Amino acid sequence: MSKLYGFSFLKDGERFDYPYKEMLTCMENLVEKCYLALGKNDDGTSEQVKKFKKVEVIPTVWDMSKIGDGGLIFSEQTNIALNKLREDHQNEPEAWGIYLQSDEIIHEEDFVQLKRDIDEAEKTGCDAIRFRYFHFWMSHYQIAINKRWYPHEIRAVKIDSNVVSYGDAQGFSNFTKVFESDVHIFHYGHVRDQKKKEEKQKDLLNKIRPSEKFNKYLNREIRAFAKTKTLPIYIQHSLVMKNRIETMGESFFVKKINAVNVISDKVDENISRDKKVKISLLRWFKTKEEANKEKGLKINLNPSFFQKLFNKKKYISKMESNLAREWDLKTKIMVQLGYIENDRG
């Protein structure tokens, strides 16, 4: 069984309304210890972080000369935390580091699968694990899918490796072999208090783009975000998100659907046991005629050519990025349930 540690970086979590406390709670529930590069702040973030017993704080002062240089300050801070983790645990066999940014979590329902994937990655000689993403956009019940949204990223690395964070810390480099996991990272960076979200976006651009081009890039970001494509998703969020979701005026608890009939060539019996998927009875059928014989909502994962043609959006099977893998059956079901529940009102 692999040993799991966490690492991350943070600055001004309170000022910009990051869900960093939810991220750190997730880490404490998942890992033995979490290393956090915490930038100097005056907004109360440091006082909040002290409440987490498994978090080791590495105080940092951000090098402002890197501001506007493609976000290098973010990978620098990430590597500070990763290096301290390696310093303490590099000699431990089968030790892995889980990396979450301050607006990301892993659902507790996925912890078992995550640990299985890490053990399998260890056995097969991998030094990095790439996870899928849910990018929640303006609501906790719709996800962004167009090309500007990355479908997956490396978020676990073997401690005894040369893997490092690079660029704006979106990903990692120097890996030799990557394990592809179906576990999702839940990204909440674009579901927050609107004013603080706008302040955060300006602050982020300031740290990534040269100051003389700030207005150009800001206007471009505004236009790009206005074109965001989304899909509804019927999903039960992690318990660590309950207070935040309710504080933002949305319902946390999703009602359980009594019965769903799925038309599919493939079957995954594990879905009915996943608490993210709120279905009491999930039945699998090969044909529409078979499914129609049983009461319950009907979901077709084998649409005909004409069904796809006339209801293309409903039958989207992956994110639009050219790098995207096809969604697993679970995600396809949650997206189609999202459409059904939206139509119900």
Cα separation of the termini? 46 Å
Q: Write out the strand line-up for the largest beta sheet, numbering strands in chain order.
A: 3-2-1-4-8-6-11-5
Question: CATH H-level name of the largest domain... which superfamily?
Answer: Spore Coat Polysaccharide Biosynthesis Protein SpsA, Chain A
CATH topology of the largest domain: Spore Coat Polysaccharide Biosynthesis Protein SpsA, Chain A
Please, what is the average pLDDT?
Answer: 90
Alpha-beta classification: alpha/beta
Major β-sheet annotation: 8 strands, mixed
Round the Cα radius of gyration to an integer and report it: 21 Å
Report the oligomer: single chain
Question: SSE order, as H and E?
Answer: EHEHEHEEHEEEEEEHHEHEEHEHH
Number of strands: 15
Low-confidence stretches: none
> What's the domain count?
2
Q: CATH class of the largest domain, anyone?
A: Alpha Beta
Shape: globular
